[in-house]
Structures are given as C-alpha cells and as structure tokens.
Amino acid sequence: MDARQLQSLVEFLDEAAGRSNEARAEFEALAKRQAKPVSALTMSGMILMTQGQTDLAKKKFEEVLAIDPRAAIASNNLAWMHAEVGEDLDTALKLAQTATAQAPEQPEMMDTLGWVYYKKNLPELAIPLFANSVKKDPGNAAYHHHLGLAYLKAGRSDQARAWLQLALTKNPDTATAQDVKRAIAEIPPAARR
C-alpha cells in the first residue's frame, strides 16, 4: 500500500467514525469474498483499534500477516500495539522493521520503529527515526513529543525540553499535552532554565 492509498484509508476512517460498526461489517463481508483480503482485514483491524477493541484488532492484524507477512500497515499497527503496553518488544521490533522496510518514507512507520526502540530503552536508535518523522510531517505534535521523550531518556535535556515545548505549542489542548507537561517536569532543574 503506497502513501496515497494509506491517506485514502485514513480519510475513509475519519468519514466512517460515526458509523464504524457498519463500515467494519462491510469490510468483513468484502474479506469473505476475496482470496487474499489483506486490505479489507487491515481496515477492519484499524476500525477495531479506533473503537478501543485492541484484542480483536490484534487478531485481525495477525490474520493479515498470516496472509501477507510483509503487510506494512498491519505490521506497523501490531508493532505499535505491542510497544504501547510494553509486551513482546522483540516481536514488536521485527514487525516495525518489516513495516519500515515496506514503506521507508512513511513517517508513521518510522515513528513506530522509533517508539519500539524507545520502549526497549534504546533512545539513541529512536532519535534519528523520530527526527525523520518530524522532518516529513512537521505538523504532527506526537512526533515532536516522541523525539523529546527520546532525548530525555538519552539524557540530552536541552534537546528534550526544546522538542517537548514545541510539541506542546503544536497541540496544547489534548490529553497528550498533559503527558508532554509531565515529561517537561522530569527534566532536571538545572536543564530547565
């Protein structure tokens, strides 16, 4: 799936947010009619993710990967889900590497691989990935946040503060902003000047 197709899928999900169960049923029906329903099952998994049904979403992405082990979106999303809860980080790393290999220019894929490295306590490997995500999508506050967290974990307080403050200015009114504020508070006082 290329960047244009991925963007179309994201736009569809936004439109379908109000009718996600109906959309998921349509994708499930489509999957039953296809020999290799990678896209349909991926969409079903993405909808389940947005609904907070992570266990079912994981199963959908695993189904996709059983059909196509190189499916970028399923690999990326499953890697992210593992990393978010800190489980099976070695598997998450393999999945994120697969996704990044399939879509090396996608900031979402780089961000996920960086997030797995961050969760594995390898911030120096995460930093360049997050920096590339920021470069490719400078408006995405989450990428700035992740870059700041990686700098913080690497002990580079000045860079951490700069990126975290930038993340906060880009998206000051969300729940993520509270996470950013907590991270800024973790910066040693001498480095906060």
Strand content: under 5%
Number of strands: 0
Helical segment count = 11
Q: How big is the Rg?
A: 18 Å
Q: Major β-sheet, in short?
A: none
Question: What does the oligomeric state look like here?
Answer: single chain
Percent of residues in helical segments?
over 70%
Domain module count = 2
End-to-end separation in angstroms reads: 46 Å
How would you sum up the global shape?
A: elongated
What class do helices, strands and sheet pairing give?
A: mainly alpha
Q: Give the averaged pLDDT, no decimals.
A: 87
- Low-pLDDT runs: none
Q: What string gives the helices and strands in order?
A: HHHHHHHHHHH
Descriptive notes:
The mean pLDDT is 87. The chain is mainly α and 193 residues long. 77% of the residues lie in helices and 0% in strands. Helix 10 (157-170) packs antiparallel against helix 11. The chain is elongated. It folds into two domains: 1-91; 121-193, Tetratricopeptide repeat domain (Serine Threonine Protein Phosphatase 5, Tetratricopeptide repeat). The protein has helices at 3-16, 20-33, 38-50, 54-67, 72-85, 89-102, 107-119, 123-136, 141-153, 157-170, 175-186.
What is the compact description of this entry?
The chain is mainly alpha-helical and 193 residues long. The chain is built from 11 helices and no strands. Helix content is 77%, strand content 0%.
